[in-house]
Amino acid sequence: MCGIIGITGRDDAVDGVVNGLRRLEYRGYDSAGAVINDGRELRVVKRAGKLGELVKALGDTPLSASTALGHTRWATHGAPNDRNAHPHLDPSGRVAVVHNGIIENYQELRASLGDGVRFASDTDSEVVAHLVADELDRTQDADLFTAVRTVLARLKGAYSLCFVAVDDPTTLVVAKYEAPLIVAHADGVGYCASDVAALIEHTTEVAALLDGQVARISPDGIEVTDVDGASVEPHRYTVDWDLSAAEKQGYDHFMLKEIHEQPQAVADTLLDRLNAPAPGQPARLTLDELRIDEGEFGRIDKVFILACGTSLHAGMVGKLAIEHWAGIPVDVEVASEFRYRDPIVDPHTLVIAISQSGETIDTIAAASHARDQRAPVIAISNVVGSTLAREADGVLYTHAGPEVAVASTKAFTTQIVACLLLGLYLAQARGRLYTSEVSDTLGRLEQIPAALEQVLELDGQIRELAERYKDVDYTMFIGRHAGLPIAMEGALKLKEISYLHAEAFPAGEMKHGPIALIEDGSLVVALAPAGHVFPKMVSNIQEVRARGASVLAIGTEGSTEELKAHADDVLTLPEPPHELAGPVLSVVPLQLFSYHVATARGEDVDQPRNLAKTVTVE
Ligand code: M6R
Q: Does residue 536 share a domain with residue 483?
């Protein structure tokens, strides 16, 4: 989704903004723009397409000033072209704005300005620049900070907004409501950005604005108020990611780098989870932040897991773990559906909201819907200080480090690990497992990173398979039990970066309809580890093969020999240290397969078409 970066107080502010936009490219966008404020005029350059187009245009029109603001736009209102790209100016060129989110009442606001007013774009955002400029004209002694606060009272929708005004050449004014915005000040330079990735090259000491907060940023410092002008505190924190983690480090793509980072990411997520409450007491599994009494978990009688996309698939594994270890019934639900029905939620319902970014609007809204009904909410997130993490009653962080590729990989495997930890934690809190059983199981999970290293050695074999299957018309992924979420994740990964038609089904459901799609030339990817559902998977493999499909089976050491008799190709994974840890291993060949298919087809792996990394609109 859209990205924002603003800098004030550096001679090379425009270069800094372009670098910041580069670090925000991963969010997904279709146009980019920048404005500089040199105290005489606001100069805007913006272009449809990739950042390179903007950089070329900036080269043709060199801009220099100590205050600049940049934006990458992911189109919602109006086509992705030059005129709809941000920043937007008011007609007199006095105020410029960039905006993430949606101004829902923009048509009403446009109409309120009268028939004579011309708009230079089709966006919902431009009207905000007009309103602020009008406010400055109307109130002779108003400054930008005051004028923005007055206008905010009229806006409906979600926004992070950043303004510059020609009369105030060293100031950025920013406002946040239901879309993330981070501010920072270091060495006499003020910054704002839509996420920390754009700031970590400058500072790791940042503050996230909370809903309804407005800030004035200048080289002297940052002042934060509410919309009425009363001084308030944002959420200040230290970012524990270093710059190298957000760079490719020799890999061709972020996605490939992130796939290879999974052993470390899983190890980091498992690290230091056992703590003794007092000397001599047995060590107990702990969450990172818990703002509810642990005893409350004994009273939980139902769990909802809410998430979107890949995080939802991790939640499906979470369901198996919680039901198995903690014995509580679990529903897994697409977050965007949950709040528009009447879910039965009460204080005895535990809600687990999973989001890599912690900024997915659907997941945040679903969790807050549950909290309104007094259900405790635990967040699983990869981003410390994210909105979801801040608003939840408890947090379990996945320590995957920054995930830049749009296609989620290391976030997924660490989310599964977090779900396994949460299943054990709930079992411990409810007395379903002895502390020794919890620590024994944790000991087994600690073998996952080594097993992942072994799986990554299959890369060469997977690349050859990808070459062979890269032009297949239709791919069906099938699995049962813990294999089903991975089949779904495999299909999502393949479609999002290679644009091939791929779907996933529970293997047992195929005969109820989907098998009609199978014909000569179809590819079926079957998750078939050794275990209690293996014989059923073998039957399903035979059924699709009999109808002309090629079968690529993902087996484990205990199942491969038999699979070789039924499948065209077999990949052999090590036996997982626990059946519920199997998905962490079996997803990796599917991630690599998608990656190699997409690169063989020449697709833009890290920034696939139409997709955004963080989905901050509904
Ligand atoms: O940040 P989140 O985990 O909330 O994001 C949820 C989905 O948008 C995300 O997992 C998406 O499906 C990925 N592109 C999948 O690779």
A: yes
Domain boundary (397, 428, 446) is at: 446
The response to whether residue 310 sits with its C-beta less than 6 Å from ligand 1 reads: yes
Is residue 75 one of the residues assigned to a domain?
yes
CA of 59 to the centre of ligand 1 (A): 35
Q: Please indicate, yes or no, whether residues 385 and 317 belong to a single structural domain of this protein.
A: yes
Ligand 1 pocket member 407 (CB < 6 A): yes
Same domain, 301 and 188: no
| CB 121 near ligand 1, within 6 Å | no
Q: What is the pLDDT of residue 80?
A: 84
Own/partner contacts of 535-542, CB < 8 Å, gap of 24 or more, are 536/480, 536/507, 536/508, 537/478, 537/479, 537/480, 537/483, 537/507, 538/562, 538/563, 538/566, 540/478, 540/507, 540/508, 540/510, 541/566, 541/567, 542/566
Q: Is residue 385 part of a domain?
A: yes
Q: How many Å apart are CA 260 and CA 600, to the nearest integer?
A: 19
**pLDDT attached to residue 24:** 85
Q: What spacing in Å lies between the alpha carbon of 617 and ligand 1's midpoint? A: 13
Is residue 451 one of the residues assigned to a domain?
A: no
The pLDDT value recorded for residue 339 is: 82
Q: pLDDT averaged over consecutive 10-residue blocks of the chain (618 residues)?
A: 91 91 82 91 92 88 84 86 94 95 93 90 95 92 92 94 95 94 96 90 92 96 96 90 74 94 95 79 81 88 97 98 97 93 92 96 95 96 90 94 93 97 94 89 94 97 97 96 97 96 96 92 96 95 94 96 95 96 98 98 89 76
Shared-domain flag, residues 276 and 361: yes
Asked if residue 302 and residue 186 are part of one domain, the reply reads no
For ligand 1, atom 12, which residue shows the shortest CA distance? Answer: 309
What is the model's pTM?
0.81
Is residue 590 lining ligand 1, measured as CB closer than 6 Å?
Answer: no
Q: Is 232 exposed, middle or buried (0-12, 13-18, 19+ CB in 10 A)?
A: middle
For residue 36, being part of any structural domain is answered with yes
Q: Which H or E element spans position 462? A: helix 459-469
Q: Which CATH number does the domain housing residue 8 bear?
A: 3.60.20.10
pLDDT (0 to 100) of residue 60: 77
Is residue 162 among the annotated active site residues?
no
Contacts of 153 (CB under 8 A, 6+ apart): 227
pLDDT of residue 368: 94
Residue-level pLDDT at 412: 98
Q: Which domain holds residue 490?
A: 456-600
Residues 429 and 310 in one domain: yes
Which residue among 389, 421, 446 closes a domain? 446
- Cα dihedral sign for 66, 67, 72, 77? negative
- Residues constituting the chain: 618
Q: Are residues 270 and 210 in the same domain?
A: no
Distances from the Cα of 37 to the Cαs of 22, 34, 164, 253, in angstroms? 21, 10, 7, 35
Question: What's the total number of domains in the chain?
Answer: 3
pLDDT of residue 441: 93
* CATH number for the domain harbouring residue 528: 3.40.50.10490
Alpha-carbon span 482 to 553, nearest angstrom: 15
3-state SS track over 579-598: HHHHHHHHHHHHHHHHHHHH
Query: Does residue 135 share a domain with residue 37?
Result: yes
